[in-house]
Amino acid sequence: MSASHATSNPYAAQAAGWRPPPLIGSRALRWALLLGGLAWFVAALVTMEINWARAAEGWQRGARFLAAFVPPDFVSKWDDIAEGLLESVMMTVVSTVLGLVLSVPVAVGAARNLAPRPVYLLCRAVLVVSRTFQEVLIAILFVAMFGFGPLAGTLTLAFATIGFVGKLLAEDIEATDPAQLEAMRATGGSWLQGLAWGILPQVKPRLLGLSLYRVDINFRESAVLGIVGAGGIGATLNTSLDRYEFDTAAAILLLIILIVMACEYASGVIRRAAL
Amino acid sequence: MPEVLPAAVLEVACLVKRYPTGDLALRDVNLRIGRGEVVALIGPSGAGKSTLIRCVNRLVQPTSGSVRLDGAEVTGLGSTALRRERRRMGMIFQEYALIERLTVMENALSGRLGYTGFWRSWFRRFPQADVAEAFALLDRVGLKEMANKRADALSGGQRQRVGIVRALMQRPELLLVDEPTASLDPKTSRQIMRLILELCTERGLAAIINIHDVALARQFAQRIVGLRAGAIVFDGPPDSLDAAALTAIYGDEDWSATLGQGRKATDEEEEHHSTVPDVERLAGLA
């Protein structure tokens, strides 16, 4: 601390000059990147062309639009709403179960520590394809293939589930402790027993969490997919918006929020009980 | 020391393992283990101890050479035949390698996987006799009350006992033991080593025990094999493991303290007194 102490230490000069090594070595490059990034942001902001007059006018339009939602009307189109919700719930359950059943083998194949290289590459390709295309694009394709209705939506959600659960589960499998699998192999257990005993107990909490989360996502997505004709509550919502029946639309939105919240609560309870 | 050479349970001949990286882990290893013989395998880290025992149950695929279990060749077996041979070799691991989220009983029963069909094992419908044997073994190692506890709720010593039970559930003829005490404190280490030795004696089991602790090896094993850079450089009874032999295995070092530890009379340090009864009990056992 004292000056005399500092000078007596032969490493004092070295200590004064020490800084953590920077991410980018060159000082010039560091500043160039920083200033360049800033300039880009400003340039992008300028090209946005915000029309302030239109925005001011829009406040009122927005307010009128929102006002039309109040009070929500659950009654006059209740049959349509109930049918749409039921369809969405069915789509959610079927697509989640189907997606999970298909995603587990794909995840095993896409785990570097379990699968031989050709299988690994194939399964990774399946996951990439499933994750690259947005649900709506897939839904449009399936609607073209299978016609309007919940079948197209269900298949879309199942396909998306494979990509989501498959990728995250494969990563969890790759992070497992290899000694447990080795121990199961050493007892003379088969390959399948190795999976069931050496891997599954390690990834079970993650698999359960992903499945519950996917139930949630699939229900919410089913509300969007209806817009492109893939069935579910989304179709009902879309119809009501087209007919300017905003009070009915408000009722549908409220119900979707309620169901998503219920899913959230249920998954929390299940996860706590199962861990 | 044995007057009549007992029938070999394991015969390793000309064993070579070269890893894909080019590292030669084992170069021409020859080893013969008699029925009921307990061998400590010592050597520096990277000498190939772990590779050697993994070549025996083929968790590691040997490059060339022969491994015979009870006269039957293990190298080159197809997967079904290999699984059948693996049932006869119990393995005990350094970090226990238990299925952490399963119960002690399930871990014990996992030793029977090689004898049990997939769906029976999936639904945990193991034969009554297996479950009864698991209870008996858990009782034998002092874990009777722990059967339904999860493995990750146990202490290190308790976990290794479960690991031992799992290996014995296979009804093996040979134990492959990989650094059983590396994660344990000195007292627990001695208890675990003594337990393994007692069980080997009770059941007439042969064992290869990889171990870093030279004093522990000298204290418990009937025979010591020293491995250096993939080759056996020492093979003999604990008494003949002198400073020259240790230098041949590990390289130059002052070995007097290490060698002194085995002789109870010369112990000066306080902590060593606690090990004295162990040595005496073992002397009675061997």
TrEMBL record, chain A:
Its main location: membrane. It is a multi-pass membrane protein. Pfam families: BPD_transp_1. Keywords: Cell membrane, Membrane, Transmembrane, Transmembrane helix, Transport. It is found in: Cell membrane. Residues 85-267 form the ABC transmembrane type-1 domain. The chain crosses the membrane at residues 28-48, 93-115, 136-162, 249-270. NCBIfam families: PhnE. Belongs to the binding-protein-dependent transport system permease family. This is Phosphonate ABC transporter, permease protein PhnE. It comes from Teichococcus aerophilus.
From TrEMBL, chain B:
Residues 10-254 form the ABC transporter domain. Residues 261-286 are annotated as: Disordered. Gene3D superfamilies: P-loop containing nucleotide triphosphate hydrolases. Pfam families: ABC_tran (PF00005). One of its GO terms (molecular function) is ATP binding. Residues 271-286 have a biased composition (Basic and acidic residues). PROSITE patterns: ABC_TRANSPORTER_1, ABC_TRANSPORTER_2. Keywords: ATP-binding, Cell membrane, Membrane, Nucleotide-binding, Translocase, Transport. The keyword NAD does not apply. The keyword Translocase applies. NCBIfam families: ABC_phnC (TIGR02315). This is Phosphonate ABC transporter ATP-binding protein.
